[in-house]
Design a protein that fits this description.
FAD/NAD(P)-binding domain; seven-stranded mixed sheet; alpha/beta; 13 helices; six-stranded mixed sheet; about 35% helix; about 375 residues
């Protein structure tokens, strides 16, 4: 059984994988091509499955201290009418925790701090990843060449490692949408912890943070490559008639703080998450649309499941086969569900379809809605020790 690993990619999934493998006694090096980690990004909602994974990695308590529970809120129409109300207390009774909101930069910082100095090598681009023998793999970063018993590719939706392992796979495709998001410059007055508003061909949502600031996002149906010269001004124009606090959130945001990204996904499922001594993890394996808020949570599940499989062996090959068997069906099912949620949300634009959707949501019993949530949230991690 091996004991050294290289993780390609220093995002949330890559860092979590490194923490998990170190907890079972492996020596791990993380290579990240960015020369400086600027702690950029907006916010993340962590559901029970992601928090349970973080607990198993030993950082759940710190993350909870830095997060704010989403107890009150729900889904609304642009005019402000409630379609569904979220009961965070009921969710907490069911799975032990409400959904927690945290800035992405804070989560990333907490994960980095859980690794020893020298584990994360920034400014190190993995130019090639290949298996060099029956029991070894190599990562070539130019001036640095790393040999290991295992390579974990956590290099995101545009994963070069994935494209080399599965050259026939079509890769990521555009979902037909773009997301614009930011964190407010200062605390804002909010009556809820979380809201999502569905209009015709657009959605707007926010989550509140512990320090009083809020993360907001807007999802628009846009062709690939669409860019706005002034994203904040465009959003103010599009959402000027939507209910409070949407205009206030936009007014509390600096123009240079708005991030805009095309929403891409791995629509064609991969045939495997592993090849030889190389494993894919997170968006590299199952990039999904953000409609269920499960992207980061699924990466955290990957990290714990991989470490647990390696802990029991008996060989790296056997561990990777177990990892693939456990993670591929679940993560790909969550990706399909996220895609379907998008079709029922901001992608609807016909007035009749929107009206039917809204009526169905208002009439859905709360117990049925809770069952749909628990389908993805109520995951129990394997133990690492």
């Amino acid at each position: 059984m091996g004991s050294t690993a290289v993780v390609v990619g220093g995002g949330i999934g890559g860092l979590a994988a490194a923490i998990g493998m170190r907890r079972i006694g492996w020596e791990v090096t993380v290579v990240e091509r960015a020369p400086v980690l600027e702690d950029a990004g907006a916010g993340i909602s962590l559901a029970a499955n992601g928090l349970r994974a973080l607990d198993e990695l030993g950082v759940g308590g710190l993350v909870r201290e830095a997060s704010r529970g989403q107890y009150g809120g729900g889904t609304r129409t642009p005019g402000g009418r409630w379609l569904t109300r979220m009961d965070g207390a009921a969710l907490e009774r069911a799975v032990g925790t409400p959904i927690m909101g945290i800035p992405r930069s804070t989560l990333h910082s907490l994960l980095r701090a859980s690794l020893p100095a020298g584990t994360l090598l920034t400014g190190s681009e993995a130019r090639s990843v290949r298996q060099t023998g029956p029991g070894t793999a190599r990562v070539d970063c130019g001036d640095t060449v790393l040999d290991a018993d295992l390579v974990v590719a956590a290099d995101g939706i545009g994963s070069r490692v994935r494209s080399r392992l599965f050259p026939a796979h079509p890769g990521p495709v555009h979902s037909g949408s773009a997301v614009l998001r930011a964190i407010t410059e200062h605390p804002v007055e909010l009556r809820t912890d979380f809201e999502l508003t569905w209009g015709r061909g657009a959605e707007f949502g926010h989550i509140a943070f512990r320090d009083g600031r809020a993360e907001w996002h807007a999802v628009l149906g846009l062709p690939a490559g669409t860019r706005f010269a002034d994203p904040l001004a465009e959003l103010r124009r599009r959402f000027r008639t939507w209910h409070d606090p949407i205009p206030e959130l936009l007014d509390a945001t600096r123009p240079d703080a708005v991030l805009q990204h095309a929403v891409n996904e791995l629509r064609a499922p991969l045939p495997s998450f592993t090849a030889g001594r190389i494993a894919l993890l997170g968006d590299a394996a199952h990039a999904m649309t953000p409609n269920l808020g499960q992207g980061a949570c699924q990466a955290l599940e990957d990290a714990v499941t991989l470490a647990a499989a390696l802990a029991v062996g008996p060989t790296v090959e056997a561990a990777l086969a177990r990892y693939d068997a456990e993670r591929r069906p679940r993560s790909q099912a969550v990706a399909r569900a996220a895609r379907q949620a998008g079709r029922m949300g901001h992608q609807l634009s016909h007035p009749l379809a929107v009206a039917l959707r809204n009526t169905a949501m208002r009439l859905t019993p709360s117990r049925a809605a809770m069952r749909m949530i628990l389908r993805h949230h109520d995951w129990v991690p394997p133990r690492l020790g």
